[in-house]
Amino acid sequence: MQNQKHANVRSKTKESNHIHVVNSSNKGSHQGTVFHVNGTTFTWEQLNKEQQQQLIGIEKKLKESEQQLTAQTDGIEQIAKQIEVKAKEIEQQARKMETATIKIELEEMSYRELEGLQHKLETATRQFEKIIREKEQELRAIEGTLPEIDQKHVQAIEAQAREYEAALVVIAKAFAPTIEQKVDEAK
User: Fold this and answer.
1) Is residue 105 part of a domain?
2) Which ranges form a coiled coil (predicted)?
């Protein structure tokens, strides 16, 4: 059985283009590719060299942008792991602080001993709070790198997809029969 790749491209423009590309060949070959664009069907072999080169150029840019986005996505996954580690560190510090408080509450002691422990607890709490604030700052710094990673590559892919779509629409119009041809065929 042949490996078939199907690509549906939908426009976000006012006019909704219906594009379906079927590539039944392997490993990037365009042979046998069938384009269905707004009711017009044509094959790769029907395209002239200029049209083929235009589509190849757009596809190449699109593939490069997709690879860059994939690399960035991998980077996002690494950042997400770092965020998870920092969140666990914050949680551990909060648990330590809670444990210290519980220990004091459970022990029976004299007023003087209680005052001493309260002072130690306040000192420990301030240290834990400081560590938690530091971990939260580290977490925010890591999170701050996320939004800028995605957008430029996503925007590039969207722009190239629109360019690919526009090229296919222009090509399809060249293949679409005119109204006069349809009338002649109906006779």
Assistant:
1) yes
2) 48-152
Distance separating alpha carbons of residues 14 and 120, to the nearest angstrom: 67
CA distance 25 to 34: 11
Note the pTM of the prediction, 2 decimals.
0.56
Closest residue by Cα to residue 38 from 186, 179, 170, 180: 170
Report how far residue 177's alpha carbon sits from residue 180's, in angstroms, rounded to the nearest whole number. 8
Residue pair 7/21 in contact by the 8 Å Cβ criterion: yes
Say how many domains are in the chain: 1
Structure tokens at 125: 């709490």
Say if 23 falls within a structural domain. yes
54 falls within a domain:
yes
Read off the tokens for 29: 């070959």
Phi, psi of 56 (to 5 degrees): -60, -45
Tens digits of residue pLDDT in 106-154: 555 666 776 777 777 788 778 878 888 888 888 888 777 765 666 787 8
- Give the domain range for residue 168: 5-177
182 in any annotated domain: no
Nearest of 26, 50, 45 to residue 34 by alpha carbon: 45
Interacting residues of 144 by C-beta distance below 8 A, sequence separation 6+: none
